[in-house]
Amino acid sequence: MKNPKKLEAFTLTELLVTLAISTIVVGLAFVVMNLISRNIQVIQKNYSYSTEMSLLEQQITIDFNRYHSISYKAETNILHLKTPLDSITYDFQEHLILRNSDTLTSGNYQKELYFDGNKINSGLVDALKISLTEDNTENSLFLYKQNDALQFMTTSNGN
User: Fold this and answer.
1) pLDDT (tens digit per residue) in 15-57
2) Residue 105's CB: how many other CB atoms inside 10 A?
3) Which residues contact 140 (CB under 8 A, 6 or more apart)?
4) 143-155 burial string, b = 16+ CB within 10 Å, else e?
5) Quick check: helix, strand or coil at residue 152?
6) Rounded to whole angstroms, what are the CA distances from 30 to 20, 25, 26, 40?
7) Alpha carbon 43 to chain centroid distance?
8) What span, in angstroms and rounded, lies between the C-alpha atoms of 123 and 113?
9) Is the full-model pTM beyond 0.70?
10) Rounded to the nearest 10 degrees, how much is the dihedral formed by the CA atoms of 105, 101, 84, 159?
């Protein structure tokens, strides 16, 4: 006896091939999503780091040009900037640079202080170099100010 109605359907082999192809496509989609996620995290980290560097440079540049007298005490690791009306301090801690109570940067850094073209350990300052190290990448900021006549008169008198 013949079966008058034949049902059209996929064979088991066709279903298994479709399932295998679908699994490969979904697996590739997850790999691509993971790569995109990592790239976004790296971009955010680089943007945050460059923003932090830019803000540090802007703030120190503003302060260097605003305050007439800049001195550094090696015993306390404090850079003191002052005018007759105002003053501000930069505290160079082990992994932090603090401007009064504001944290400007955190991480590994090296600082070098200069006065009249000579590297100094303590005393009056007219230039500052900060080298920040992040993930084997080193960026340097070099900031300086023009000394006015009062600065030269103060240093020549030994004050």
Assistant:
1) 999 999 999 999 999 999 999 999 999 999 889 888 888 888 8
2) 20
3) 129, 130, 131, 132
4) bebebeeebeeee
5) helix
6) 16, 9, 6, 15
7) 12
8) 9
9) no
10) -70
- Structural tokens at position 98: 């603090």
Q: Which of 110, 115, 119 lies closest to 92, judged by CA?
A: 110
CA gap 117, 132 in Å, rounded: 22
Edge to edge, the sheet with strand 108-115 lists 118-120, 108-115, 127-134, 137-144
The answer to whether the beta carbons of residues 104 and 59 sit under 8 Å apart is yes
Residue in the block written with tokens 């995109």 = 36
Using one digit for the tens of pLDDT, what is the confidence trace for 118-138?
999 999 998 999 888 777 677
Which residues is 120 bridged to in the sheet? 113
Q: Please answer whether residues 129 and 140 qualify as being in contact, where contact means their C-beta atoms are separated by less than 8 angstroms.
A: yes
